[in-house]
Amino acid sequence: MKRFTPALLLVVAACQQQAPTDGNLIVQDIPERPGDTAPATVPPPAPLPPTGRAGDREVVSEAPFAADSAQGAANVVQTYFALIEARKYTEAHKLWGPSSDLADGTFAAKFAGYREYHAEVYAPGEVNGGAGSLYVEVPVKTYGVTTQGEKFEEPQVVTLRRVNNVDGATAEQRRWHIASIAEPPAPH
Description:
alpha+beta; Lipoprotein
């Protein structure tokens, strides 16, 4: 038992707290962080669909889809606007079909008046056929800020076209391409 007495005394002594004195008290200033006193910010509400009423449109699905389906066409539209938002105009321009007769520089110049350019892509309509081609319309709402600081919001409909699976059609012709789109609002 004599062996355990010194060990027991050490344990008891270690568990006792000393009252703070000037010799063992550490004072440290903790700088105030700017975010500590600011109220929490609330993210802005999600933009409304083109009609201005929530719930009127179904956003584009993220479920698996075939590239030649209506959902495949909506995916082209999503990619297009993501490239515009990233200012990758040459790549975005390539998603247009032969109906786009603008040079890459002219195409890019159309977006020079925007500081921010975003889009909400909604569920595509039904695929319609005619004269060996398939068409589908995809509703979109573009919104953002002009270089003058003005906010804009514009409903648009993007029409996509692809050649139906006919003999002699190339893989490129069988891909969805943008055939037409409403012009973005002109910045002031």
